[in-house]
Amino acid sequence: MYSKYFSALAIGSILTMIVLSLINKSFNGKKAFILIICLGIALRVCYGMYNNFSSRQHDTGWLFTSHNTDYINFSFDTGHYGYIGYLFTYLKLPTSNVNQLYHPPLHHIIQALFMRFNAVIVKPSAEVAEILKLIKGLDLSSLDLVPITVEQKVLLERYIDVIFNMGRILTMFYSSLIVIIVYYILKELKLPDKVSILILLYVACQPLMIMMTGFANNDLLSYLFVFLTLYLGIKWLKKPNIFFSIALALAIGLGMISKLSATLIAVVIAPIMIYKFVTILISSIKEKKAKPILLLAVNLLLFAVIVFPLGLSYALRNLKEFNQPLTYVWDLGVNSWLYVGNYNLWQRIGLPSFSLINQSPFHVFATRDGLIADYNIWLDMIKTSTYGEWGYAQTAVGIPMYYGSLLLALGCLISVIYLIVILIKERFNLEHKWQLLFFASISLLFIIAYLTTNLRYQHTCTSNFRYAIPLGFAMIGLLSLAVHYSKNDILYKVSFSFISVFSVLSCILILVI
Question: Most CB within 10 Å of its CB: which of 290, 316, 461, 487?
């Protein structure tokens, strides 16, 4: 409870400073960006303080699987909890790819090593130390009963829970760093301040991005590298030297060994590299200078030498060890209670019906109690972008936020149509057109990936917005540019007011859930 009071004070103080700046008409330039970044970081740190790794999780399972008998048939679970617990205990990769163990291990390794560090600070009791010593000596291929009583298991779980939940320090850092990186991306894009403020405010206060601070799985770390890749990609385009080639390769490679879906961002980076190569090649031919193209070729070779072995290392390891396909995703199958493949194609990817829109502001997992499972992927994306896969009693905040998210999505759709019209009308002769292409390419990439994944894995959990976080950033970028191109000051004020109100509601939601 103390953490919530502290959080309310911190977030309220920053919101007050923003309001006073708006009243004094000084909410612009560096001051506006600093206040928004501080608000975004405060929301993430405060959320992480009063929520632990047992709140609002995905695919974490339990730490142990065991029989509830006098003695325990001990093994680590195959969810993210067990994955981290296994690495913490044995300091080696799992010998299975079942359930969540198929994921690349970087996030889990970092958390496990941090647990080791925490174990130095929070020392186990003598009894827990003896249990850990016994477990470390186990032959995991054996299913023999381990002489650990239920009471000892409780002691062990309590201790590991303490040092495990200290890992929130890392996720607070990752999440806060994303806000800062987005600011630097916008700075490199050289957009008008009014456009950048809208985008940064959305990212700072986007509810699911804040809630991801408390995730124990590998989503957040992979998105940290995705946004870092976008930033370094722009820097590389402007100055393709050895430093940025290595940094970009490491960002993509580390993203891929955090979560393989981070590979998607390479599809945005590849055209940038091809464009730069072709541009310098043409320039070298015209000027009859071989040095620039040779230097770029060396940089590209260096990039490839780093990114491919690093990024594909775990996927190739699992291919060899378990015959796991490179693009493997754990499939729940048609018998899962989450399966929604029984709905037709239009119901799944077409416009949602009004009855489905109005039935609940929160994600509905399965048909029950008069509610129909969320089978329409676009509607579910909007729902989970606001609340994740959870429901809340705070409907006074929840309902306006839900309909606000619907209006925001509609605004983005209208903006895309407007941008297409204005591009044709102006014959592609627009200011900030390469920035427009940047946001459009990210949007198109993640829409295609999201759609493809949902058609391949037809489960209601697949339509979660957490699989398409950069899409929100990119679509708000398109909306902000559309408002800018309209040259309508009233429209900008309406857009800013709308996103501001949505952000305040997001702050309230984070404080009351």
Answer: 461
Please enumerate in sequence order all residues whose Cβ is within 8 A of that of 415, keeping only pairs 6 or more positions apart, or say none: 475, 478, 479, 481, 482, 483
| pTM greater than the 0.90 cutoff | yes
Coil, helix or strand for 105? coil
Structure tokens, 358:
């109005």
Cβ-in-10-Å burial (0-12, 13-18, 19+) of 442 comes to: buried
CA atoms within 13 A on the CB side of 229: 29
List CB contacts of 408: < 8 A, sequence separation 6 or more. Answer: 498, 499, 502
User: What is the per-residue DSSP string for 444-470?
Assistant: HHHHHHHHHHHHHS-BGGGG-GGG-HH
- pLDDT value of position 443: 95
**How many angstroms separate the CA atoms of 41 and 411, rounded?**
27
Q: Which tens digit of pLDDT belongs to each residue from 111-151?
A: 999 999 998 888 888 888 887 777 776 554 444 455 677 77
CB of 48 within 8 A of CB of 214? yes
Residue 73: the pLDDT is: 58
d(CA 352, CA 334): 23
Place of tokens 């702050």: 507
Helix/strand number for the chain, H first, E second = 20, 4
Structure tokens at 467: 């699989």
* pLDDT tens per residue across span 67-126: 555 555 566 788 898 899 889 888 889 888 888 999 999 999 999 999 999 988 888 888
Which residues are paired to 149 by β-bridges?
Answer: 71
* Cα–Cα distance measured from residue 224 to residue 48, given in angstroms and rounded to the nearest whole number: 17
Instruction: Find tokens 């456009």 and name the residue.
Output: 195
Residue whose token pair is 């600070």: 121
Number of CB atoms found within 10 A of residue 162's CB = 15
Q: What are the beta bridge partners of residue 146? A: 72
Find all residues with CB under 8 Å of 144, minimum gap 6, and list them: none
Q: What is d(CA 35, CA 37) in angstroms, rounded to the nearest whole number?
A: 6
Contact 8, 511 (CB under 8 A): yes
Residue partners of 164: CB distance under 8 A and separation at least 6 = 53, 63, 81, 84, 85, 111, 115, 216
State the number of CA atoms in the 13 A half-sphere of 371 facing the CB: 15
DSSP-derived 3-state class of residue 148? strand
Residue type present at position 370: G
CB atoms near residue 319 (< 10 Å): 14
- For the chain, how far is it from start to end, CA to CA, in angstroms? 12
Measured between alpha carbons, how far is 283 from 300 in angstroms, rounded to an integer? Answer: 17
Q: Would you call 371 helix, strand, or coil by DSSP?
A: strand
Percent of the chain with pLDDT over 70: 95
